[in-house]
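Re: Re: token formats

Sure, here are both.
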Amino acid sequence: MEKNHHLLSELFLQLGLPAGPEQINAFVAAHSPLPHGTSLSEATFWNTAQAAFLREALEQDSDWVEAVDQLNEALRQAPLPNLE
């Protein structure tokens, strides 16, 4: 059985967040880096439903897992300094 995989922008829509490239970049910049030892679903900026969705996507290895992993990786990196 072939799984469907979702884009990061689709994950943002699923989470009820703005999903344009600029909005995704702004979200990642505003919330990264995640504190060491904090799982993605435990981050304080998620509401209860968002945290549950992320946790279940990983636990169930759902078709969202690649996008969730991509977001997790992006949030683990320090934001680039503003060079303007």
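Second one below.
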Amino acid sequence: MVKACVRASLDLQPPPITGAESLHVPKAVFACYRAAETGRTQKVG
């Protein structure tokens, strides 16, 4: 994955994931924090 990202940054290949896909990770992490704070499940959107 790292190699693919470096190659994409050098315009040698397309990115392995889209910007929209990469935003899903922090949304999921923050939902986990909210769930831990509230004791309730969270939707990741």
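The chain has a mean pLDDT of 93. Residues 19-45 form one domain.
- S.
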